[in-house]
Structure formats: C-alpha cells, structure tokens
Amino acid sequence: MPNYTNSVWSETPPAPRHRALAGTVSVDVAIVGGGITGITAARLLKRAGQRVAVLESRRLGKGESSKSTAHLTEALDVRWSRLISRFGEGGARLAALAQRAAIERIALFVAEDSIACDLRRLPGFLYAETPDDLDELRAEALAARRLGIRAELVGEVPLPFPVAGALRFEDQAQLHPRAYLLGLAEGLDGDGSYVFEETHVLDVDEGEPCRVIAENGVVHAREVIVAAHVPVSNRLLLHAKLAAYRTYVVGVEMPFADPVGLFWDTGDPYHYARSQTIDGTSYLIVGGEDHKVGEADDTAEPFHRLEAYVRQRFGVAVAPTDFRWSGQIVVSADGLPYIGRNALSSRVFVATGYGGNGVTQATLAGVILADEVRGVPNPYAALFAATRWKPLASARAVLSENADFPKHLLTDRLPHRGASALRSLPAGEGHVLTIGGERLAVYRNGNGELSALSPVCTHLGCLVHWNTTEKSWDCPCHGSRFDPHGRILNGPAVEPLQARPMPDLGEGDEEAELLIDLDEGLPA
Ligand SMILES: Cc1cc2nc3c(=O)[nH]c(=O)nc-3n(C[C@H](O)[C@H](O)[C@H](O)COP(=O)(O)OP(=O)(O)OC[C@H]3O[C@@H](n4cnc5c(N)ncnc54)[C@H](O)[C@@H]3O)c2cc1C
Ligand code: FES
User: Fold this and answer.
1) Could you tell me which of 433, 461, 365 has the C-alpha nearest to residue 65?
2) How far apart are CA 203 and CA 206, in angstroms?
3) Quick check: 122 and 262 in contact, CB under 8 A?
4) Do residues 37 and 227 lie in contact, with contact meaning Cβ atoms separated by under 8 Å?
C-alpha cells in the first residue's frame, strides 16, 4: 500500500524545534501561522525593528508551503486575458508587476540570507495538447504582451511527448519550498521576538492590545496578522468568497535528463510538472487532478489518474515506494488573492485565496502586510484589499462555489444507510453513519477498535466526509480537515470535532445492522 502523505521535501532539511507558548507574552505584531505568508511578514517586520510572535499549530514547514511544487511564475491559474476583463488593463498590469516583484523578492531573500534552497531560473511553458486549445494560447500571448510580460508562442517544448503549441514565459523560477521556508525563519526567535510551535490559536480578540488566544497561553499585540492559509478569525465574510480544492502530486525518480522548465497544460483539470534534484537524486514531480475538498468518493482515484498520466506522457511507472502527496489550495472568487485589513477590523490583517500561485502570492502578502502594519504605503495594497468586492468578477464564481454550502448542509443530512458500511468498515478507515438515531463519524483503528466523533464541522456545521488516502475527515463546505481523532489539520475551523461515545453494539455486526436499520426506518 503506497504512502499518500510524504512529499519529496517532507524530511529535508531537518527543522529546529521551537517551544510551545505557555503563559502570556507581549509583542508588537502577532502572526498566526508559520507558512510562507507568516514567515515572510515576520522576517520583514523583525528586520524593521518590530517584536513579533509567530504562533504555529504544528511545526514550521508542515503546512501547505512544504507540499507546494513551487513553480514561481508570472502566469497565474486564471488567464491574464480574463484578469484584464475583470480588473481592466491597469489593474491586470499592476497584478503582473506584483507577480514579477514577488519572484524577485524571493530571489533577494535567498541572496540576503544565503538560503540553500536550490533557487533556479528557468522558462515556463503553458502548453496545449490539442489544436482546439491554440486559440486560448494566442489570446494569452496577446494579453501577456499588453501587460509587459515576456512570453511568446512556440511550437516545441522540452517534454518527451508531442504538444500542439505552447506559450513560453522567460525567466521564471523554482526552489525547494521547505528549505526556503526554514531558511527564511532562521534568526526569527530571540531578541524579544518568538516562534511558538505546537501552539494552536483558538481566537483573535481585537482590542488595545489585541489578544491572540491559544490553547495554553495568550499573546498581546498591537496588531495581528492571520496567515493561516485561510482566515481562522473571520468565520463567514471572507469564506463566502473562497473555495478549497485538493490537488495531487507524485514524485518519481527520473530515468532521463531533467526537462529544463516549468510546465502546465490547458486541460481541465490541469496538470503541472517540473524536476528537482535532492541529495543527488533527480525527481520528476507531476501534479494535478484537483477537486473540491470533501467531494471525491475515493481519493485514491485522482492518484491513479495521475500515475496513468505520468506513465503515458513520460513513460515512467510510479512504484508503490515513490512519493505521493496531496495538499490544499484556496481559490478566490475573482482570481486575485485577498490581502489586507480584515472586514470590520482595524488591527487584524488577513491573507488568503492564492490558488496554485501561493509561493509568490504568500510572499507578496508578507510584503504588503508588513508594510500595512507599519503604515508604509504599498503600491499593490489597494488592488489586493481583502475587503474588495468586484461584483461582476465575483458574483458568478461565488454563486457557483457557495451553492455547495447550503447543498451540503441539507443533502448531507439525508439518512446514510450505515449497516453494511459499518460491518465492512476495514481497519484504518472511517464512515459517517447513523447509529441509535445519532449521526456519527466512525473510525476503525489498526487494532480493529471503533471510535466515534460528531461529523458536524465546527466551522459552520456541514457534515465531514472520509478521505481514504489521507485518513482524514474533510469538510466540503470551506475545506476544514480533521485527523481520524478529530484534531484540526486545515482551517477555517479552529475547534476539533467533538468526541462521542461509541454506542454499545452488542456481540456482533448483525446487531449493529439491526440497530442502524431500525433507526433509519429501513427494513432490516
Ligand atoms: C500540492 C501543491 C502544489 C502547489 N504548487 C504551487 C506552485 O507550483 N507555485 C505556487 O506559487 N504555489 C503553489 N502552491 C500553493 C502554495 O504552496 C500555497 O498557497 C502557499 O504555500 C500557502 O502559504 P501560507 O503561508 O498561506 O499557508 P501554509 O503554508 O499552509 O501556512 C499556514 C500555517 O498556519 C498554520 N495554522 C493554521 N491554523 C492555525 C491556527 N488556528 N493556529 C496556529 N496556526 C495555524 C498551519 O499549520 C500552517 O503551517 C501549491 C500548493 C499545493 C498544496
Ligand atoms: S469548513 Fe465551513 S462548515 Fe466546514
């Protein structure tokens, strides 16, 4: 059975351990989340003389930043032609400048801090496999030219399979995301600043000072940056403009020379590929097969499709021992991230909605938020403001993405026929069932023992679904994820799933079946 949770960069380099928060500390700026957003802001603020505290639920380098494939490109998930129609040529040009500035800012951090993260400049290729998609490439080439992005149409790409055409972007970049993040965090802890790990934030209380309330302590701060990938202090306002997706990646040892470039196709769902040498071994890293969180019946399927794609296009068989992982991306309604002051707040700042461009956009967010907190004007702040509402650009996307929220609230509550599911629930798997009239998220551990949780997501009350490959309870509404015991893996939820006593089902599975079927009014 393959391991579905190990990325090519999960273990290297080793990370120093930081203590957990215990008691109360006071700083200038508290930062919730130790990913690229939070660490970038912390690094800039500390260098500018501010005392900061980073509060991280898990360890640095365990969030989405370390699952990333870290293509640093001027191209975004949403085509530039579409962004011009949404934000006007002026707005789109500013967004393009911001994207280039983020790549250069990363390169500057790497040089200033001597971070050994294998930063490499190389071209990027948006390629079409069928002639039907060539018009899309032509439109994108025109849009790129209007915005001053260096990109041209080409007939060939350095890939081992034929394509109909491609748009080549010059001077893009890639790096080892975990090594970059840990390098950027070096020197943050100390001199009145703190990095707290295993410190889960439960609430942010805005005031003078603000109070960031964690499980075992409180941080007092003049301002708070919520850099938790999704806002954990804003329960609804921003989430109505966001949608969470899972994306899948395989990393396989490469039997041929590195394809020199970053590659992504025009397909839907799309694929992305690049290579990376780690400790002398070259890996081909290919991702894609995205779907909304909690909406895949069997999460092994996207991996199987990805493995078939790698076999067909690159001629490489993915072995059970090769790397497989998936991660979360959060997309905004209008295609640009939300960065800035939280709605209805004057001292709490947020950053989210980066889609698959989050290494560059988290960097951009760190820079903008560090400026905003210090009252320094930033040329990109107004464009990305978290409180913006672009009615024409956002309305359709919000309606279609959030149409799922009431749907999941209602339809997921229809009876689940649990009898056969419980009887056949294998070790290491979970299922949402109705037992004794109560809806339960039931998990069977490796020893065959059953345990139960409330399946009601602690964010806004949708029902979680079991994720077979990552062994997690995933909420389809706004992407919260919980481990088999209910502990939080991804927000916006901040509270765990509530434990429930596992009903006494008697001697055997037959009694469990009877109990469930009677409760659901179904003939036994
Ligand atoms: C598979 C994959 C491929 C990707 N590929 C690319 C790519 O090629 N190019 C690109 O630019 N982007 C890519 N991205 C996107 C990019 O990696 C992310 O958007 C970016 O790293 C997010 O950074 P972050 O700091 O916002 O979030 P994270 O790195 O997730 O950091 C947030 C941190 O907050 C912590 N946290 C959450 N809640 C709390 C709480 N209540 N209390 C305390 N801490 C909390 C989490 O534990 C986490 O460590 C990819 C993402 C994935 C998953
Ligand atoms: S994540 Fe919002 S209801 Fe679950």
Assistant:
1) 365
2) 10
3) yes
4) yes
* Atom 1, ligand 2: residue with shortest CA distance: 478
Ligand 2 centroid to residue 479 C-alpha, Å: 6
- Burial, 33: exposed, middle or buried (Cβ in 10 Å; 0-12, 13-18, 19+)? buried
Q: Cα–Cα distance between 119 and 124 in angstroms, integer?
A: 15
Q: Given the CA of residue 457, which atom of ligand 2 is nearest to it?
A: 4
With the most atoms of ligand 2 within 8 angstroms of its CB, the residue from 232, 459, 481, 497 to mutate is 459
Nearest to 384 by CA among 110, 76, 138: 76
- CB-based contacts of 475, cutoff 8 Å, min separation 6: 293, 294, 457, 459, 462, 463, 464, 465, 481, 493
Per DSSP, the three-state class of 434 is strand
Burial of 460: CB neighbours in 10 Å, binned 0-12, 13-18, 19+ = middle
How would you write the pLDDT of the chain (524 residues) with one tens digit per residue? 788 888 999 877 888 999 999 999 999 999 999 999 999 999 999 999 999 999 999 999 899 999 999 999 999 999 999 999 999 999 999 999 999 999 999 999 999 999 999 999 999 999 999 999 999 999 999 999 999 999 999 999 999 999 999 999 999 999 999 999 999 999 999 999 999 999 999 999 999 999 999 999 999 999 999 999 999 876 667 888 899 999 999 999 987 767 689 999 999 889 999 999 988 889 999 999 999 998 887 889 999 999 999 999 999 999 999 999 999 999 999 999 999 999 888 999 999 999 999 999 999 999 999 999 999 999 999 999 999 876 555 555 554 555 565 555 555 554 455 555 677 789 999 999 887 778 899 999 999 899 999 999 999 999 999 999 999 999 999 999 999 999 999 999 999 999 999 877 654 444 444 444 333 333 22
Q: Give residue 348 CA to ligand 1 midpoint distance, Å.
A: 19
Both tokens of 132, joined, read 């039907």
Rounded Cα–Cα distance for residues 235 and 232 (Å): 7
Closest CA to 443 of 407, 409, 486: 486
Cβ–ligand 2 distance for 493 under 6 Å, the answer: yes
Instruction: Please indicate whether residue 481, judged by its CB atom, sits closer than 6 Å to ligand 2.
Output: no
Residues β-bridged to residue 474: 465, 481
Name the residue with the closest Cα to ligand 1, atom 2: 68
Nearest to 480 by CA among 471, 472, 466, 490: 490
DSSP 50-74: --EEEE-SS-TT-SGGGT---EE-S
Whether 37 and 59 have beta carbons less than 8 Å apart is answered as no
